[in-house]
Amino acid sequence: PSGLVWLRRDLRSHDHAALHQALRQCQRVWCVFVFDTDILQPLLERGLQADRRVEFIHESLIDLDEQLRALGRSNGTEGVGLLVCHGRAIEQIPRLAAQLGVQAVYANHDHEPAALARDAQVRGALAHEGVLLHTYKDQVVFERHEILNQSGHAFTVFTPYKKAWLQSLTPSHTQPHPVERFADALAPCPPGLATGVPPLEALGFVPSNLRELKIRTGSRGALALLEDFLARIEHYGQTRDFPALKGPSYLSVHLRFGTLSIRQAVRLAHDLHQQGVAGASTWLSELIWREFYQQILAHFPHVAERAFKPVYDRIRWEHGKTAQAHFAAWCAGQTGYPLVDAAMHQLNQSGYMHNRLRMVAASFLCKDLGLDWRWGERYFADHLIDFDLAANNGGWQWCASSGCDAQPYFRIFNPVLQSEKFDPQGKFIRRYLPPLASLPDAQLHAPWRASAHDLAAAGVALGRNYPAPLVDHFEARALTLERYAVARTET
Ligand code: FAD
User: What angle, 0 to 180 degrees and rounded to 10, lies between the N-to-C axes of helices 52-74 and 218-230?
Assistant: First the structure.
């Protein structure tokens, strides 16, 4: 038999569940990626021609195509490579399957609601032609039905979930799904089809600043980042909360697009955790948070639109002109709160935001500006290079207190104290907010409290080269407690 491997958020050619299965089950295997116009067209229509994610995928596919060619050559087969289509996946996959005459299409599970709907359609169209769609677990170590509480229900609190997750983990869960030794089955591109990645421009996109940012793409990029991180993982627990330090791994985009295998990441982290490396235990916990939110989205898909806890849907968020203006200021990093603004500049300039700052910026949107968390969630979804529906939604609902196991609604981050605590010397703020660079450390976190003399000496003119604060935190806090009164019945 012959098979077609359809790559989606698993852009690597090693330790790959679907590819492994196809190579073992078929004599001839081809690999395809579809630039899906159902996903890309709406971006283009909204003017997002320079999208870092599309470029990240594009660069990673070039890497993947080379890897497949090398795998073919190592087995004496010339002409192996990646097939790349541009069109609607629901049409392209059945069309290509028919053209190649395969008996089955192989893919890895994707549990996002839109992906489930797409896959159901593809499965139906393929079945019509007598072609099967086989899908496998690859994106997570444990899927939603694998970690359940004693009554057989989903966990909605992280700590017991993590405990059960760790207890269930055996070496077999993180064993690689090898590709190389089965690579003989990789078939050359048949006549009439071409392998290789078309230029970005042919897809309607233009380069973003991905290269300038030196973001490493493809599985080669992922491995380089992983190595770099492993050399400092022991300090992760102490450094991870300070945005001016190189603390976290920066691997989120690679986990998002599968240029890094989650099994490899968990295996390494778990080994070090067992050796007593505290930083590795903390990092492993973060990888478990990733799976926690994935299973929340899979079990409770309503969270994609509504609060996990329905009582929070009754909150009356600010709306109208002032709310719109506040939202625009938040997006542009113009709130007058330096840490929040620096965070938004980091997002806008690089597509990445440090985890601590995601919490601070999100909390500020909901609890200082009184705006609906979905507005911020949407903005992050458009701008984060590592955007992942489950993690982003989980993070936003945590900050808005509407999520499972969320921050209690009456715990409200003080953006100035967060700034003093996590960027004490203002290194991060100064990097992103040059107009404030000359303010002394003590005044940098709340410039409106500085004396006129200090402001003038530092060249800061509030309302001119840096905004005055949009709201007073303490007034906003009181309003938020009132706004959240609807939730009091719940606690
Ligand atoms: P590291 O600290 O090195 O963590 C390692 C990995 O663990 C990450 O790459 C990620 O895959 C996972 N992880 C870490 N923290 C979390 C978490 N809280 N929830 C789920 N997974 C986690 N993460 C995304 O991958 N995509 C998103 O769209 C996203 N949106 C977020 C929105 C908000 C409001 C908040 C508070 C958090 C969000 N996160 C999101 C989680 C977290 O901020 C990022 O995963 C992290 O900052 C990525 O950087 P890193 O790879 O250097 O992380």
Answer: 100
Question: What is the C-alpha to C-alpha distance for residues 417 and 437, in angstroms, rounded to an integer?
Answer: 19
Domain that holds residue 293: 140-176+219-299
**How many domains does the chain fold into?**
3
Do 114 and 2 lie in a common domain?
yes
Contact 260, 219 (CB under 8 A): yes
How many Å apart are CA 396 and CA 380, to the nearest integer?
A: 10
Assess whether the C-beta atom of 364 lies below 6 angstroms from ligand 1. no
Same domain, 399 and 370: yes
- Tell me what ipTM this predicted complex has: 0.99
327 and 282 within one domain: no
Same domain, residue pair 134 and 238 = no
| Residue 365 and residue 481 in one domain | yes
Residue list for the binding site? 236, 283, 286-293, 386-388
Beta strands in 64-174 (DSSP E): 82-87, 104-108, 132-136
Give the C-alpha distances (Å, rounded to integers) separating 406 from 176, 399, 490: 34, 7, 13
**Could you tell me how far CA 184 lies from the centroid of its own chain?**
34
Q: Identity (one letter) of the amino acid at 374?
A: R
Q: Which two tokens stand for residue 438?
A: 């000359």
289 lines ligand 1 (CB under 6 A): yes
* DSSP 8-class letter at 268: H
What whole-number distance in Å separates Cα of residue 397 and Cα of residue 363? 10
| Pairing of β 2-7 and β 104-108 | parallel
Q: Which residue has the tokens 């979804």?
A: 381
What is the CATH number for 266? 1.25.40.80
- Distance in angstroms (rounded) separating the CA atoms of residues 116 and 126: 15
Nearest Cα residue to atom 23 of ligand 1: 391
Q: Do 235 and 157 lie in a common domain?
A: yes
- Residue-wise pLDDT for 237-282, tens only, equals 999 999 999 999 999 999 999 999 999 999 999 999 999 999 999 9
| Residues identified as active-site | 286, 289, 317, 355, 373, 396
Mutation probe of ligand 1 site: the residue of 165, 251, 252 with most atoms within 8 A of C-beta: 252
Beta bridge partners of 5: 31, 106
Put the strands of the sheet holding 2-7 in their side by side order: 82-87, 28-36, 2-7, 104-108, 132-136
pLDDT of 109 reads: 97
pTM reported for the whole predicted model: 0.97
Query: What is the C-alpha to C-alpha distance for residues 394 and 286, in angstroms, rounded to an integer?
Result: 13
Looking at 138, 168, 198, the residue that finishes a domain is 138
Q: What is the pLDDT of residues 199-240, one digit of tens each?
A: 999 999 999 999 999 999 999 999 999 999 999 999 999 999
